[in-house]
Amino acid sequence: MPVRLPADAELPLLRARVSDLADRALVVGDPGRAARVAERLDDMRQLAVNREYHVYAGTWKGVPVTVASHGVGGAGAAVCFEELARGGVTRIIRSGTAGGMQPEIVDGAIVVATGAVRADGVSHQLVPTEFPAIATPELTVALKAGAASSGLDVHSGVVLTGDMFYPSDVITGVDLPLWQRAGVVAVEMEAATLFVIAALHGIETGGVFAIDGNPLAAADVAMGDYDPYREIVVQAVDAALTAALDVLVS
């Protein structure tokens, strides 16, 4: 049975009190991005700061929400997702950046995940390999519609979740061309972990991502010219966050 903590408990690593959490949470990797999202909320207050986990509370369109950062990669992110679920959160949406995996999915586009390939290092320690990592269909449909209202190029499909960011000259790691041929639309680092943990706790979940490059189309395959701070990416990040917040409270 999923663990639920009492209202007066403090989450061990997020360090927020359960009673301060809303039942809806937006999660992002970057603590700085969490702070910028929190500034968009009404009645915002910071609940806790510990390691990579920065947690905020506020309201969006009159509905209480929690915003939390989870850092980079599935292992640390799993701590955030698990503690939010144990704290009574019933809907978690992840918004972040990702690399496009199809030729037409390039910088400035938005991808909504329908599910994720479990190439992370965490989910296989939680459930067998055959267990799928799937987003909640209703949230996926709503995220796609919300992102489309931005006027940006929007795609949806299965994303690839892996632990490696910079490629190695020794071992190639995840076979990106193989997953491209399989129709995977983007690659990122935490969605599969979130989708599995959400399933284990019986909560709703989704993922919406701003595309900051395409590793299979990049001239520099070693990613020496990677720059996620260009204006075209910033616009997509803002649009993805707005869609996530709107669907979170819908």
UniProtKB/TrEMBL annotation:
Family annotation (SUPFAM superfamilies): Purine and uridine phosphorylases
Stated name of the protein: Uridine phosphorylase
Annotated Nucleoside phosphorylase domain residues: 24-220
Gene name, Swiss-Prot/TrEMBL: udp
Catalytic activity: uridine + phosphate = alpha-D-ribose 1-phosphate + uracil
EC number: 2.4.2.3
Enzyme class, UniProt record, top EC level: transferase
Source organism per UniProt: Leucobacter alluvii
InterPro entries: Nucleoside_phosphorylase_d (IPR000845), Nucleoside_phosphorylase_sf (IPR035994)
Species lineage: Bacteria, Bacillati, Actinomycetota, Actinomycetes, Micrococcales
